[in-house]
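[[Encoded backbone]]
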Amino acid sequence: MISEKYIQELNRKLDEINVKVGTLESDLKKIREENSVLKKENTRLKKENLQLKKNNNQLRKDNIELKEEIRRLKKGTDSSNSSKPPSSDMGKKKRMRKTKNEQSKKIGGQKGHKGQHLKFRKEVGHIVEHEPINCSGCGSYFSALEGRVVKKAQVIDIPPVRAEVTEHRQIEKQCTKCGKRNTGRLPGTLDYSAIQYGENMRQLITYLSVRQYLPMARISELIEAVCGERLSVGTIANTIEGYANKLEKVYWKIRDRIATSKVVGSDETGARVNGIKGLIWTWQNEKYTFQFASDNRAYKTIEYCFNEGLPYSILIIDRYAAQLKTKVKAYQLCIDHLFRDSKKLIEHYGSKWAKRFKKLLLEINQLGSESKVWKSKAEKLEKRLDRLLSEKIPKKHKEVQTFYNSMKKHRDKLTTCLDYVEVPTTNNASERAIRNVKIKQKVSTNFRSWKGAKNFTIIRSIIDTAIKQGQDPLKFYFVQKWC
């Protein structure tokens, strides 16, 4: 028979076991909970690890692209492979590649070059004779002895320039029959402005400002130094504005001539007006130049100047989007611009397609620049161009792909110069026509007002047109007689 004491001992041990089981169950529950948390954490870490791997791959890819970009940027851009002006190349150490002909040339004038020198003038203003007073041998004086001219020499110089004053006097006469007093009529505005500067002085002021780019203060200084007349800045500004107002009708006539021209080149450049960014546009051909100051680079400026477009003209441009909206007979893209773009793609990305395209552009430029375009040669170039633009190029470099797509889109604008002998292959004439704006700003910083910019474009259009037509740019006021 089991004793009660033994039973109590068993119960006690059983209780201990139950307590331990309870503890184990509690621990198991905690372990399960911790395990669940760890599983979630593990899942999160796996996701993070996967994302880090993706990020790492992207960083590696970006690193390769950045290294390529650094390599490209180290090559840089200048006036030979971009639209940067040649002045931006100053200070850059760049090895110039010379052709064999250039390397073989000696320094100085080349054989067959006609030099320029001063020539004796038939008409002279003064004659000064230099004769000996006495004999260098015996000392006798040559008081009455006549001599002969053995040598002539001339000095060409400018006489002292002083402002010439012309006084106009208004004469009054009284009629002996009726007694009425009559006065003579003074020229110009002398009836209400008793003292003023004449036409020559005012033309010189305007010429120095618009053609020679001098700031107003320096014009005043120059006129005083040369003529002895001190002009105020206000007088100079009023003189320029007065001419701009008088010539505005002729200015718009020049626009009308360009609107009906067969060939027109156009370009635009930035210009600061009273600290605000603006633009100066130009449209030009062999006979006329028309410039226009605008506060924007949008098509609405073209629309304002040529509201019906240029329907009779072949327009030479630099692939600017706003210009491509103009209504024209045909377009010709500037070969020089495309050549520079191709050169950049070759130097920066080593594009083989761009290299072949550049070579083809050179051939188009050469053939299109000749006085006569041979049809058979033109057809061969056209076919080669079509084949080149139908190729599939690697999409490795976006810039190359973008240029390729653009050339494909504007295929019809690449060889217009081969169809019309009068169409130039480049837009360099327009660039030269607009360069004066940059020179003006380098000398004078910026235009003080939109009115000043407008005055400049009006008078500059007149002067450049006068030069193209063989007229004296200093006498530009008479342009209205032949425009």
Notes: The chain has a mean pLDDT of 87.
